[in-house]
Amino acid sequence: MALVPSPRLLSLWLPVIGWAALILAFSSVPDLSSGLGLWDLILRKAAHLTEFAILGALLVRATRREVPAFTLGIAYAVSDEIHQSFVAGRVGSPLDVSIDALGLLAGIVLLQVVRERLAARGGQMRAVAIELDGVLGDTRPLWLDWLEDAAHRYRTISKLEPASLPSDRGEAARVLDRWAADGVGDWRAALGRFAEERAPAYLRPRGDVAAALRQLRASGARVGVFTDAPEPLARAALAHLAPRRIEAVETGSQALERLRSHLGDEVDVVRSPAELLSLTQPV
Asked: Where in the chain are the domains?
């Protein structure tokens, strides 16, 4: 079965790929001289700075981490200069890599400043971590039914006792990995298909919760979701319950801790619809 990137993944990385391709296209032009002497040099270096500032902002938006974004940007800057050394009339320059690095830093910092100002305008709310099962929709009935279905479907390959699995689904996933190694195969893919087909029957979006999510996003708040459910189940649930409104999703054991590392220390942790609604109500 072919792997299809999620719409969220595409929305994060297609702008990066598109902008990198545009930089590559400019780098493939043999001569960009404007004939303006010193001003030509200044304009070309300013263009380098601007190109990579935009790339830096797009990379940190996609990776959600400053260091990986900067590292990827530097790697691309080096590869761009190497590419230029093979283009007639162009040369690879360590100085340009330095200028590109400054541009990357500028883009990363600028995006952070913009996010902070948007958050301040939204009432000093920096980030919200939402528990999937407690707030948006309980995925456990769907999980338990899939376990029963899997136990029956694969009974001749490997015996599975759903009642014996740990209640923590992160720990249960490790048990299922050992179970699947006996010949069952990719149980996560099977869970994902099962969840995608049945999510509408198990999960009902709440209008007030959806409205609160829209309000949070409009205010500039960064919204993430955490759950101990396996990722395919969480993704299928969110596609049905909260499409296009979630910045980050962490699943399995220690999901909240990993989400905090994405969103930062100043996070409001929300575990019920009432708590979510209270964040969007005037004080």
From this structure: 7-121, 122-283
